[in-house]
Write a structure and sequence with these properties.
single chain, 11 helices, 0% strand, globular
Length: 288
């Protein structure tokens, strides 16, 4: 079941990234991060109470706390990069950390994928790298966009590795995700307060009416991101972390396709080839 849950993760992360990128073009990135995570906290809190997740509290929750501290910084950097650069380039590049960090953790812990899975990992990683390139004749990505994307990539990879260790049961997973998101809100609120104190706006140009109209999209982004973390944890705890990390990191393909369909962003030839390689790698991993 690891490939199924990992691919579900890539679908939900891809759609969440697309939605977050669109929202950041209308309102400050910190506001998008804080409100989307606040809505997710409300939903997760209700689930924890309904399932009795509090009984699963233990030392593993410190992994969730760490993920909750790292996550907002990664999301903020990523949403800013999505607002500055083309989604079809930023999203694949941001996935590199999501592959590299959990892969490294899995290998250190002694995981050794089979030959087909090693081939799938190599092909999928190559696909992500190619999909992140501007392509022949394409405009280069701005340095600021590149730096923000690399910061986000390392942060996302760290969160994936941490959340996989935060719980090994379903009810415990709900509690871990709740704690993670609660920390996201605390850190995000502090960052937003400091930003406002420096004179930066936190409301969109339309004011509160803009916030109200964006609530459904903000809820979708927050809940899709939470669900993706949950399915990734299930995938990583029921199969090799190396396989789960690579398949889950195919979400840039979803983001790029959504940007192509909705925003009419055009992928360069090398980017389209990268997306194709990523899909080939998926098949090899799933059958290995």
């Amino acid at each position: 079941m690891t490939p199924v849950f990992a691919l579900a993760t890539s679908l939900m992360w891809g759609l969440a990234d697309f939605g977050g990128g669109l929202l950041t073009r209308r309102m400050p990135a910190l506001t998008v991060v804080l409100l989307s995570q606040l809505l997710a906290v409300g939903a997760l809190g209700a689930i924890v109470v309904a399932t009795g997740g509090w009984s699963e509290a233990g030392p593993e929750l410190w992994f969730a706390v760490a993920a909750g501290v790292v996550g907002p910084a990664a999301m903020l950097a990523f949403y800013k990069a999505l607002a500055l650069g083309p989604m079809g380039v930023v999203s694949p590049l941001g996935a590199l950390g999501g592959v590299a960090v959990p892969l490294g953790v899995g290998l250190v812990l002694g995981e050794r994928p089979g030959i087909l899975q090693f081939a799938g990992i190599a092909v999928a990683v190559a696909g992500v790298v190619l999909a992140s390139g501007p392509g022949l004749g394409g405009a280069p990505v701005q340095r600021q966009t590149l730096i923000l994307t690399l910061i986000a990539a390392f942060g996302f990879g760290s969160v994936m590795a941490l959340i996989a260790e935060a719980s090994h049961t379903l009810t415990g997973l709900f509690l871990a995700l709740f704690v993670q998101r609660l920390c996201n809100v605390v850190v995000g609120a502090g960052a937003l307060y400091a930003s406002v104190r420096r004179g930066a706006p936190w409301l969109p140009e339309e004011g509160w009416s803009g916030i109200r109209s964006a609530l459904p999209a903000l809820a979708f982004v927050g809940l899709a991101d939470v669900a993706a973390n949950g399915t990734y944890s299930i995938a990583a705890n029921n199969g090799p972390v190396t396989v789960a990390a690579v398949l889950a990191s195919l979400y840039p393909v979803v983001t790029a396709l959504a940007a192509r369909g909705v925003l009419r962003e055009k992928l360069q030839t090398v980017q389209a080839a990268g997306a194709g390689l990523a899909l080939v790698g998926t098949v090899l991993l799933a059958t290995g």
